[in-house]
Amino acid sequence: MRIRMTVMAGLATLAGSLGLYPLFERAGWFWAGLGAVLAVAGGGLLARRLRLPALLNPVFGLAALLLYLNLVYAADRAWLGVVPSPESVRHLGDLAGDGWRAANRYAAPVPLLPGIAMLTATGIGLVAVMVDLLAVRLHRTAPAGLPLLAMYSVPAAVREDGVGWLAFGVGALGFLGLLMADSREKVGGWGRTVGTHHRPREVPLAGADPRPGEEAARPD
After folding, report:
1. Each residue of 86-103: pLDDT tens digit?
2. Which residues pair with 89 in a beta bridge?
3. How many alpha carbons lie under 13 Å from residue 189 in its C-beta half-sphere?
4. How far apart are CA 77 and CA 71, in angstroms?
5. CB of 82 within 8 A of CB of 70?
6. Can you count the helices (H) and strands (E) in the chain?
7. Which residues pair with 110 in a beta bridge?
8. Which of 129 and 193 is assigned the larger pLDDT?
9. Helix (H, G, I), strand (E, B), or coil: what is residue 24?
10. Cβ–Cβ under 8 Å, residues 108 and 23
């Protein structure tokens, strides 16, 4: 299941998402992204637990992301408040359209309207799906840095000052932690350390009877 790598992939995604902070007036977007990352991680763990093919790993991640968005933003229109229904999916689509129009209407930092919050959670969740697939399932940790880097391109394209060095540093540390966790698992997968073990020579105790054959070799 690679639980440790799943956790590190989620942490790296969250660390990379900190670069989005210049886009919003309030910090509620981070909690929306956190829920999306947790949902994707759970979907990936389930796919690996069932030993399904790698191509189904993102399918489970996307399904878990849809369940999360449906629960948070369209629970009143879903079946039993959890299962997506045609009406709840339609509402999510309308909410995404409202968020896109609002994002184009305001200049950054934008107010955290429901549509904008949902779009942010969706974007962070999609990045989490890619990182989980590449780093955890396919063991391709280095390419997993590309979707993480893509999150920094959004504020860099919108704001002239781009991303602050502190947020960039935290994101870089998250990615380095993911690389180190992957390297540690690969080294651990080689097996236990092989060392040389010399058997100590046995020294006969004083007065002990010699072993068979030693008496004949002993000089008179």
Report:
1. 999 999 999 999 999 998
2. none
3. 8
4. 9
5. yes
6. 8, 0
7. 24
8. 129
9. strand
10. yes
Secondary structure (H, E, C), 149-199: HHHHHHHHHHCCCCCCHHHHHHHHHHHHHHHHHHHHHHHHCCCCCCCCCCC
Rounded to 5, what percent of the chain is helix, strand, coil? 70, 0, 30
> For tokens 């429901």, what's the residue?
114
pLDDT at 186: 81
CB 46 within 8 A of CB 61: no
Structure-token pair, residue 2: 């690679």
- Rounded to 5 degrees, φ, ψ at 110 are -95, 155
Per-residue pLDDT at 212 exceeds 60: no
Q: Please state the pTM of the whole predicted model.
A: 0.83
| CA neighbor of 136 nearest in space, from 27, 49, 67, 210 | 49
Kindly compute the dihedral angle of the four CA atoms of residues 141, 147, 150, 154, in this order, to the nearest 10 degrees. Answer: -140
Tokens, residue 119 = 């779009």
Domain ranges in the chain? 1-186
Helices (H), the chain: 3-17, 28-49, 57-73, 86-105, 114-131, 145-158, 165-188, 214-217
From residue 25, how far is each of 30, 39, 52, 107 by CA, in Å?
Answer: 12, 25, 41, 11
Beta-ladder partners of 83: 79
Closest CA relative to residue 149, chosen from 54, 25, 16, 58: 16
Question: Length of the chain in residues, anyone?
Answer: 220
